[in-house]
Amino acid sequence: MPDLWSLFDFPPLDGDRIEEYLDTILQRVAEWFDAPIASLFVADEKGTIRCRASVGVPVAETAVIEVGKGIAGSALLHGLPMLVADPMNNPLLANQIHETRKEISSAMVVPLTTSHEKLGVLNLARRDQDQAFDETDLKKANTLAHNISLAVANWKHLGDMKEISRVRRLAEIGQMTAAIAHEIKNPLTGIRSAAQLIITMPDQAVELAHMVEEEAVKLSELCNQFLDFARPIEPSFGPVDLFVLATKLRDVHQHEFWEASVELRILGDAPPILGDRHQVERVMQNLMLNALQATASGGWVAINIFPKGFSVDDTGSGMDEETLSKLFQPFFTSKPKGTGLGLSNCQKIISAHGGVIVVTSKIGKGSSFSVEFADNYVEAA
User: Which of 106, 80, 105, 103 is nearest to 93 (CA)?
Assistant: First the structure.
C-alpha cells in the first residue's frame, strides 16, 4: 500500500478545474481505503453543499447535504468523523436516520472543516462482503480530510480573490472610459469651435484649419496611448545601444531643455542590451521628458547608462510617499493635462523585456527612475 501522503502527489489546485481536482482526490482516497463506494460533497460558491465527485455509484445532481440533517449533516454539525456500522444506534444520529442502504455494511463519514468554516463531507463505504472500517481507518481518513479541507479552503479563497480582481478590473475599465471621454472632449471642442468659426469667418479659414489639425494630432496621440495601454506588448528583439538612444533623444529634445534652462547630461556607457529599440526608446524618452517637466530652471536631468540598464535622474521637485505608491497605476497623474498612461505603459514595456523600474524620490531633492534588464537580456560584450 502506498504511503498516506502520496495521495496528494499531484499538481497544485487550479481554481478553474476544481471538479477534476476533487475527482482525482476521491479516486485515490477510495483506492487507498479499498472503498468501492465513495463521494465527496463540497460547498459551492453559494454555500450549497453538493456532490462534486463520486466513485462506485452515481449521485444525483440534486443531492445536497444540510448541516445537522442525516448522517453526513450530523457529522458536519459536530465536526466529528464517524464510523457507521449501525447508524440507528449512534446517539449523534438520533431521529436523523429513516432508512439505510442495505448493500453498505460499513461507512466512514468525515467532515471537511476549517477552524471557522464547514466546507463539506467525505463519504467512504464498503459492501457486506468487505472488511469493516475500524478506528485506525477513521483516524487516517480524518488526517486526509484535513488536507482536503485546506485545498478546498484555498480554492474558495482563490475564487474570492478572482472576484476581487474582476471588480477591480471593472473599476479600471470604468476609470478608463471616463478618462477617454474627458481627454477626447477637449480636442473635439476645439475642432468644433474652429469649424463653426470657419463658417462665420471664412477669411480666417487657413489659420483655423491649422487649429483643427493641431487638435486632430492631439486626438491621434491620445488614441495611441490608449491603444498601447490596451494591447499586449510584443517586443521585436535585437541589439540596443542605450548610449546611442540617449544621444539621439538629446539631439531631438535639446531645444526644449534650452528653453527651460535645464541642463541635459548623458553619463556612462555599457554593452548593448537585447530589446525592441523603438519600445526602449519610448521608455527613455518618457522618463526624460517627465524629468524635464519636474525640474525648475537652473536644474539638471541626467541619463546614466550602466551595465544592464539606465537611469534618469533629476533635481526636480520630488514626490511624496503617496504619489510614489500610485505612480504606475493606470490613469493616475499629477499633471493637469496628463492621461496617467505614460508610466503605466513604460512599466509594461520594461516587464515585457524582463526588466524592472525602481523609483526613488525626495521632496525638494529630485527623483531617480532606474531601469534594469535581466541578465539574459544583456548582450555579451
Answer: 80
